[in-house]
């Protein structure tokens, strides 16, 4: 499986502003935040895209959401709300091929998210 920038962050080969780590996942602040809170929650298992998620990954992928809820509370955005997004492939706007849950909040977010059609 090809190495991505995110496996290098997991392995501490490049720095990141880490907000949570456990045996299954790592969460860190996005280097190019789109909102006051923009955190990426990634499994330690390198799954390239949503297309590659299998039944054996269900616990791990579900865990990303448990951690998202915990971080949202810690960041104080649980009450006002936030968005969780996992982009897939080119049309989804995926740029790093190691699945990651974006946790975005701290301001009112536009919807629909594709203003250019
Ligand atoms: P995608 O476009 O694949 O859904 O999201 C990838 C995200 O990773 C982008 O929001 C981008 O800003 C972020 N990102 C890319 N490289 C790095 C990095 O080296 N460090 C951090 N913290 N975020 C990164």
UniProtKB/TrEMBL annotation:
Residues the record marks as active site: 100 (tele-amp-histidine intermediate)
PROSITE patterns linked to this entry: HIT_1, HIT_2
Motif Histidine triad motif in this chain: 98-102
Signal peptide (from-to): none
InterPro entries xref list: Histidine_triad_CS, Histidine_triad_HIT, HIT-like, HIT-like_sf
GO molecular function: catalytic activity
Residue ranges of domain HIT in the record: 5-114
Short name of any one Pfam family annotated for the protein: HIT
PANTHER family found in the cross-reference section: HISTIDINE TRIAD HIT PROTEIN
Protein name stated in the entry: Histidine triad nucleotide-binding protein
Upper lineage: Bacteria, Pseudomonadati, Pseudomonadota, Gammaproteobacteria, Oceanospirillales
């Amino acid at each position: 499986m090809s190495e991505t920038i995110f496996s290098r962050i997991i392995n501490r080969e490049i720095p990141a502003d880490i907000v949570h780590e456990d045996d299954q996942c790592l969460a860190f602040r996005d280097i190019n935040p789109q909102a006051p809170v923009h955190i990426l929650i990634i499994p330690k298992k390198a799954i390239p895209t949503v297309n590659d998620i299998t039944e054996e990954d269900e616990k791990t992928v579900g865990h990303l959401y448990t951690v998202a809820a915990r971080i949202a509370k810690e960041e104080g955005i649980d009450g006002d709300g936030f968005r969780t997004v996992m982009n897939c492939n080119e049309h989804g706007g995926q740029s790093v091929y190691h699945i990651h849950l974006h946790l975005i909040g701290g301001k009112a977010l536009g919807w629909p998210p594709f203003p250019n059609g």
